[in-house]
Amino acid sequence: MSPTDPDFDPAELALLADPEPVLGQLRDQFPLFQATIGLQRFWVLSRHEDVKRVLEDPSALMRPPGASTPPSLGAGPAARMWKTALSMMDPPDHTRVRRLVGRAFTRRRAEDLRPGIEAVVDEVFRGLDDRDQIEVVSELALQVPMRVICGLLGVPDEDWPMLQSWTPDFLRIFLPDAASLDDRQRLDRASQNFIEYFGAMIDARLEAPREDLTTSLVALQEEGGMTRDELIGALRGLLTAGFETSAATISAAFLGFGREPAQLDLLRARPDLVPQAVEELLRWESPVRAHLRYLGADMALHGRRIPAGAAMWMLVGAANHDPLRFRDPARIDIARAENDHLAFGGGRHFCLGAYLSRVELQSVFARLARRWSRIEVVEGTARRRPNFQFPSLERLVVGVR
Fold first, then answer.
1. The CATH number of the domain covering residues in 71-287+342-400
2. Is a pLDDT exceeding 90 seen at residue 239?
3. Residue 312 to residues 4, 39, 73, 87, 159: CA-CA distances in angstroms?
4. pTM over 0.90
């Protein structure tokens, strides 16, 4: 560690109720520094301009040049999933698989799904009739996106809780070198569960095709468009892309509107602001707080030359609260005119489910504003997942009226 590098431990930050003061100090005083996270040495970026530059750099890679899998994953199920996860691929494999899978997640397709999504939202909200208190995460935030994506994939209703329960452990795969031995063991179990579950789904569709997205992707795999493991990885990735960001942002909206009731008042008075409100809560919450890339070419940043192949950890949550880019960034402002947030990442790995997520969030926000005039957070109930990279709320109880 250089004498000028700060102490930086994402595991400790994950335990803070509000890491922004620490992140703000890093952003202001240490816009570029080196840190050891787990077994790996990273360059860490936190300013919006820098994070965006690397995310959108066409030469940046998801994997170290010449690497197959991180040594910390060993040769088990997690290593198998890492090799074929769309979100971890580089060209040309990423280009080939994303082109196939992305057909189901275009802007037009998301708009075509809007009536069905609004019907799901209405059904979930009807289940909350005559309630003056709700547990947001389990009763609403997870319900809407899980029903939508599982409906598209053809996942039975009764399997939703099981798939969701595997997801927190699986998300460790995106920074395996920082995971403990216990974390890696849980990651292996979650990976094996997903391999077996989606493998069985593929076999079932081969035997009896249905009118769902899984059947369409199985047909592409049979035509040689992708391998079986790539298809399993794509299905697992679609599950997360279809619900993680939406669920985190729905939960954050209740937390945010509870803290800033004037913004809920404004949304109720100005329903035309629903799309802007969605973008603002995505910025304010930043469901994925950090992204990893490896430089494909040398890059000059803050007077230093970073060599090709260097690992870059980009603090997206900090970038989305950068006062050099956003006025009064800690405050929710649903009328914010310019909102160049990075909540969906950037470049070739821009979130595959972004259009679907936006339609889901717009439907929920519109229904929320029509339904309730006040949201009051019950003290002590806001509990986040202890994962700095994916710190979504695990529990949030609110009073509503």
1. 1.10.630.10
2. no
3. 18, 14, 20, 16, 37
4. yes
